[in-house]
Known about the structure:
The protein is α+β, with helices and mostly antiparallel strands. It has two domains: 8-96 and 194-206, Ribosomal protein S4/S9, N-terminal domain (Ribosomal Protein S4 Delta 41, Chain A, domain 1), CATH 1.10.1050.10; 100-184, Structural Genomics Hypothetical 15.5 Kd Protein In mrcA-pckA Intergenic Region, Chain A (Roll). It contains ten helices and five strands. The chain has a five-stranded antiparallel sheet, covered by helices on one side. Strand 1 and strand 2 (130-131) form a beta hairpin. The chain is globular, with a radius of gyration of 18 Å.
Amino acid sequence: MGRYLxxxxxxxxxxxxxxxxxxxxxxxxxxxxxxxxFPPGQxxxxxxxVSEYGMQLREKQKVKRYYGLMxxxxxxxxxxxxxxxxxxxxxxxxxxxxxxxxxxxxxxxASSRKMARQLVKHGHITVNxxxxxxxxxxxxxxxTVEVKETSKKIIPVLExxxxxxxxxxxxxxxxxxxxxxGKFMYIPKREEIDLPANxxxxxxxxSK
Length: 208
């Protein structure tokens, strides 16, 4: 199945939360999920009781869509997390946070993860001084992630950086807005990641 090309707000309404698919624009009170707190295609009414499998599925879909991944990609991350020592669900979330497109978004070089993915694919991002055009590249401790020198005047990038003082950055990233350069300080712990999801349900989903 290809990447979803329909309305972003429809996905947020389906999961019942802001997935930040439009980046900072999702912070507005005009967001569709705030005005219509029911799934698309349904009339407003009390939601039917969801089965255990249904809850696991929705949690998996929520996290997958939050990071903008397709099913096969997401499953591979789960398999990687399963092979590591530790709590599988927490490792899964930290792996997703290490993705280069996510780091670029978190550093405010892009206003959404979709835009961040495009910046990476088009060669506008460097890691430790070398161009990396693979969105799934995993950033590690001490990596310097910056906008390529010849790309530092791209208008959407400059517009996105204006929000850094209002929104701020996450603790594990250090960003210099003037130089469009940042550093991945350390791999975050699950409790530091602002993702309202129960990853244990995802583990249960794939363990069946």
